[in-house]
Amino acid sequence: MKRILAALLVCATLLTACSTSGGNEAAEAPTTTTSGGSTASDQDPSTRATPDPEARTIEWSDCGGGFECGTITVPLDYSKPDGKTIDVAVTRHPADDPDERIGTLFLNPGGPGGSAIELARTYARAGDIGDRFDIVGFDPRGVGESSPLDCHSHLVDIYDADPTVDSDADRTEVLESSEAFVAECEEKYGDILPFLGTTDVARDMDEIRKAIGDEQLNYLGYSYGTSLGQEYARLFPEHVRSMIIDGLVDHAPDGVTTAENQAAGFDTALDAYIAHCEADGCGFGGQDAGAVIDEVIDAAEQAPIPAPGADRPATPGNVSLALAQALYSEQLWGSLSNALRDAQEGDGSGMVGLADQYLRRNDDGSYPNGTEMYFSVSCLDDTWPSDPDEIIDASLDAEKAVPRFGGPIVIDYIRCSMWPAEAKPLKPVPADTEGLPPIVVVSTTNDPATPYENGVAVADQIPDAVLVTNEGEGHTIVGQGKPCIDEMARAYFVDLTVPEDGLTCD
Predict the structure, then answer these.
(1) Which of 120, 212, 290, 493 is the most buried if burial means most Cβ atoms within 10 Å?
(2) Residue 146: left if φ>0, alpha if ψ -120 to 50, beta else—which one?
(3) Taking Cα atoms as reference points, which of 149, 137, 171, 186 lies closest to residue 11?
């Protein structure tokens, strides 16, 4: 179950939203003590460094809309700096007020598999952040414009399979579709799969920073982007000026535990939708929304629900994806209600449509690369059982604990038990890390994909980090127009004003 991709849909308004509480005051005194007692970095706000003669180069060219585009060539394997290389695509929009430039703000929308180039190009750039920061997005290796992987011809098969393995036929279908997916990726990209994890992407980001010529960077990462931010902070703490990570992935537990926790997060979010329907009705004619959901799940288990408006019926896998997709944002709750009512009447088209949104399927039926990168990264970044049956057993246990989501979310990672590249699990930022400024951790109480508790745990792990709690629904919040959150982000990035630890925005 993907942790991230909905962040692409929600964060394009950040720069406008973050301009609501200030003008273009220069950050003359970046050492700032907040009401909570946190002190930000005391470095000069201008972070442009003396050019490093050994830095890699990016040949920038105009690519429209005020953006510059380029490519940086980096080692495929950083332990062999003179060996094979891989190209990473980068875009930037220079600060609109270069005389007041503070530095570079790097973005990552999540995924793994989301395009930061796409995110950077869709940003609104009004206000202090657009005026004073170069906005930079780079597609991580293997994604988008950066030597992309393409081995998803079995994508429909792996998600059409029944994710609740309660028969030999279900087991065979899950194993065979997963084996075909993994085999295609290994055949095409076996030589580079070991080098697509977040540690290598963090090193790429530092090479881009050096090529740009900044001593330090500023960073905003959503969901999986929080993994990238944490790893960068672990490897290069003194190269961070400011960092907000929103929708936290916690790498302290193993992979299966993380999946089980995520299932509980989706269940909490679904409870919020059900409570909303109790108050609003959701068009179910007085029927309990939870009962409607279970009715549709059971119907798909008995036989795929016909979907005349789609190219395939609503299988149990499609129904599971549809439920997950609708919980990423309250804006999708109405679509879910419509799809559930139609499914009750025997038309699963709406459920398949939501599933396709989850998979980012194009109107022509094609899929962008992304799912293969999701597993390429997730299977490297965490520890997983090597025996597929262990994950099947874990999924059955998770289904007992969280009936609607436990089985589907845990079984999704069965691909990691087959993955041909050895895992390189990420580690939390050590508590004794020195040189790291206060990092802002933003966590939403009913976030389905990255549960609130993840943010609490990560804020405790990172030295001097502060936790900002968003009381609400959906996956990630920075830049979505909530004044309490966006004013905090503007003040932190521009003036290095660290919010009070424990700030709650309701």
Answers:
(1) 493
(2) beta
(3) 137
Distance (Å, whole) CA 158 – CA 174: 7
Phi/psi for 390 (5° steps) reads -65, -35
Of the residues 223, 227, 376, 395, which is catalytic?
223
Is the distance from CB of 384 to CB of 391 less than 8 angstroms? Answer: yes
Q: Smallest Cα–Cα separation from 499: which of 18, 28, 33?
A: 33
Q: Which residue in the list 337, 475, 486, 495 is annotated as catalytic?
A: 475
DSSP secondary structure, 389-440, as one string:
HHHHHHHHHHHHHSTTTHHHHHHGGGGGGT-SS------PPPTT--SPPPPE
Residues paired with 62 in a beta bridge: 68
pLDDT in tens, 438-455: 999 999 999 999 999 999
Q: Which residue has the tokens 């629900």?
A: 305
Q: CB–CB of 128/135 below 8 Å? A: no
First-to-last C-alpha distance (Å) of the chain? 28
Q: Is 308 helix (H, G, I), strand (E, B) or coil?
A: coil
Q: Using alpha carbons, list the distances in angstroms from residue 378 to 338, 367, 452, 485, 502.
A: 33, 19, 20, 29, 30
Locate 420 and state its tokens.
């041909």
pLDDT of residue 127: 82
* Residue 4 confidence class, pLDDT cut points 50, 70, 90: very low
Distance between CA atoms of residues 404 and 103, nearest Å: 46
Q: Is the model's pLDDT at 250 over the cut of 80?
A: yes
Active site residue 475: yes
| Structure tokens, 419 | 């993955």
DSSP helix/strand/coil, 18: coil
CB contact set of 477 (below 8 Å; sequence gap of 6+) = 246, 442, 444, 470, 485
CB 440 within 8 A of CB 469: no
Q: Is 39 helix (H, G, I), strand (E, B) or coil?
A: strand
Residues with Cβ within 8 Å of 51's Cβ and at least 6 positions away in sequence, in order, are 213
Give the whole-angstrom CA distance, residue 52 versus residue 88: 20
User: Catalytic: which of 160, 200, 214, 447?
Assistant: 447
Q: Identify the three-state secondary structure at position 73.
A: strand
Give the tokens for residue 195. 């080098």
Angstrom CA distances, 416 to 127, 382, 399, stand at 43, 9, 19
Q: What is the DSSP letter of 332?
A: G
Q: Which two tokens stand for residue 426?
A: 């990420």
Residue 385 CA, distance from chain mean position: 23
Beta bridge partners of 467: 441
In this prediction, residue 89 carries a pLDDT of 98
The angle at the Cα of 105, spanning 103 to 110, to the nearest 5 degrees, equals: 165
Count of alpha carbons within 13 angstroms of residue 327, beta-carbon side: 31
